[in-house]
Amino acid sequence: ENFFFDGDASQLNSQRVVLRVRFYDVDKKAVVTIKGKQLLVDGIGRASEVEEDANAIEARKWLKEPSLMLEAVPLVKGLKQPYKLDSLVCMGGFKNSRAVYKWEGNTLELDETAFEHGTLYEIECETEEPEALKAKLEAFLSSNGISYSYSQTSKFANFKNRSLL
After folding, report:
1. HSE value, Cβ hemisphere, 13 Å, CA-based, for 93
2. How far, in Å, CA of 151 to CA of 162, rounded?
3. Which of 7, 53, 86, 135 has CB 3.0 to 4.6 Å from 11, enough for a Cys bridge?
4. Is the four-CA dihedral 17, 21, 25, 28 of positive or negative sign?
5. pLDDT band with cut points at 50, 70 and 90 for residue 46
6. Which tens digits make up the pLDDT trace of 67-106?
C-alpha cells in the first residue's frame, strides 16, 4: 500500500516533491520516502529519492493524523523549514503488487498498480545505464510478443490526476 502526503497548501506538490509512506505485507514494514523532482523522458524516469524505515504500527496512525510525521520522522521533520510545513494532509493512495526478477545481471521489478480508476503494469529497474537496458528490454519484450508502451507520467501523477498514462 502506498499513501501520499502534502502540506495543507500543497507546499510539496507545488515544488514537485512527493512524500510517501509505503506499507509492506500489511503492517510488517513501513518506509517513508521523499522523491524529488522527477523527470520522465522516453519511458525512463529519473528522480532523487531518500528513504527512512518507520514502525508500521506508528505509520498507520499517520493516515488519520498525518501531522504526527512532522515530529516522529527525522526525514519529514527536515521538510518543515524549507517548505514551510505546519501540518500535513493524507491525499490517499493506491495498492501496488511487485514481483522481482533477476535478468541479465539486473534486478527487474514488475509492478501491478491498482488505482481506484484502473490498473497499470510497469517494469522498474535501477541502473547506471538506463538507455542500454531499455534497448535490451525492448528487444526481449518484442521477441516474446509482449506489447508495451512507455510511461508518460509517474504513478503519483496517475493517482493525483486519475489517469492511466
Report:
1. 18
2. 15
3. 7
4. positive
5. confident
6. 999 999 999 999 999 999 999 999 999 999 999 999 999 9
